C-alpha cells in the first residue's frame, strides 16, 4: 500500500522513514526485496492515537535491534498528535558533516526505510502546507544551507533517491545548519513546542543542528 499526498483522514494508514541499507549503515545501498508489511486502514479517531511506522520486512521489535535502530518522535500541536519515523545511524568514529551527511547530494535523513512524517491532520512543514497523510522527507545538505524535499511516496526504502522518487516531490524548503559545541553520536530528531499550534523538529548529528518548523493549519480547530 502506498500513500499519495492528498489522502483523506479515513484512509491514511502508515508512516515513513529515511534510511540506510539492511545493516543500518548510513552509506549502504542495499534494498531488501521482500514484500511490505500490510497495514489496514484506520478511522481518523484511531489514527490520531495509533500512528504506526511503516517497516519493510521487520517488526518494531526487530527494527529496534538494527545497527541503526528505529526512532519515533511524537509531534504534539495543541493536542493534535502526529509522528516522525526514522532510522538512527551512529557516527562510530566516522566523519559526519561532508561524510555520513554528504554535501550537495540527496541524503535520506537517517537509515533504512525512508524518513517520514505521518500527519492525521492538515499541517505546514517548513512552510509547505500539507493535507492529512503520510509523507517522506529527505535533504540536500550544504555547509551553509540545507534544502528539504517532501515526497508523496511514504512507503519506500530510503535509497536510491532517483528520478522516480524525485518525480513524486510535492514541495521543498530550506533550513540553516547551526554548529553545536558538543557532538551528538547518534542521529536524533527531537520535538519542541513553541506554544500552541507551532513547534519545531530538531535534527542533530555530529556538531550540526537544523530546525524544521511544523504548524497546525488554522482550519483544523
Overall form? globular
Low-confidence stretches are 1-25, 27-49
What is the overall number of helices?
3
Q: How far from one another are the termini?
A: 30 Å
Helical percent range?
A: under 10%
Structural class: mainly beta
Q: How would you characterize the largest beta sheet?
A: 7 strands, antiparallel
Arithmetic mean of pLDDT: 83
Number of strands: 11
Order of helices and strands: HHEEEEEEEEHEEE
What portion of the residues fall into strands of 2 or more residues?
35-45%
Count of individual domains: 1
How big is the Rg? 16 Å
What's the quick description here?
The protein is 7% helix and 39% strand. It has helices at 44-49, 60-64, 163-166; strands at residues 70-77, 80-87, 106-107, 116-119, 123-125, 128-130, 133-140, 146-151, 169-175, 178-195, 198-216.
How would you portray this structure in words?
There is one protein chain. The protein has 221 residues and is mainly beta. It has one domain (9-176). The chain has 3 helices and 11 strands; from the N terminus they run H-H-E-E-E-E-E-E-E-E-H-E-E-E. The strands form 2 sheets. Strands 1, 2, 3, 4, 7, 8 and 9 form a 7-stranded antiparallel β-sheet that branches. The chain has a 4-stranded antiparallel β-sheet with strand order 6-5-11-10, with no helix packed on it. A hairpin with a 2-residue loop joins strand 5 and strand 6 (128-130). The longest helix has 6 residues, at 44-49. It is globular. The two termini are 30 Å apart. Residues 1-25 and 27-49 have low confidence and may be disordered.
